[in-house]
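Before the break, one more example. Copy the sequence into your notebook; we will annotate it together after we see the structure.
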Amino acid sequence: MQWTLVIPLKPLSRAKSRLSDTAGDGVRPGLALAFAQDTVAAALACPAVGDVAVVTDDALAGKELAALGARIVEDEPCAGLNAALAHGAAHAAASRPESPVAALNADLPALRSMELARVLRTAAQFPRAFLADAAGTGTTLLAAAAGGELRPTFGTGSRARHRASGAVELRLAGVDSVRQDVDTGEDLRAALALGVGPRTAAAAARLLIPGQ
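Here is what the structure looks like once it is written out:
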């Protein structure tokens, strides 16, 4: 079974505003792109993944992520994260109807392909399932079986909403790289401690983050 992953990415100029304590306005777009590049590269290297669709209207991000092998889907709804995910999932279902679909955050720079494979193998046991983020309040991955409806409700407090919607929470140990999204400087330091991909490592080195 090979999954289609849907990865949403807002325009880089508006991405990662909560990293302002660590990265200035001139640096954050490049950092957000590096996160997405390392996330997509690891996802494409995962043996459980057959296709990665990135939903974005950012021309630079689209070009760079397509070069890695991602399929770029224009964010036609332009109505926020969950609308983008629903649009991407519908696009995925139309192009690969036999494939289960999972929404994955674009800010997982420490992502390990084999940890992602383990999460997806476990998710395949359920009609809908999700993985909570490292903070324990959000979601980094939401999965639906082939022919099923994703019904994403990402955002602040999404762990509780996804659980309330009937999605099964995946309680797996040893998949920290799939949980560690990056919204703040503290999150970035945690990802660096896990070991990030080469693009994020290079971008973070330019920030001279203490303790990295």
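The chain has eight helices and seven strands. The mean pLDDT is 94. Try to locate both features in your own notes.
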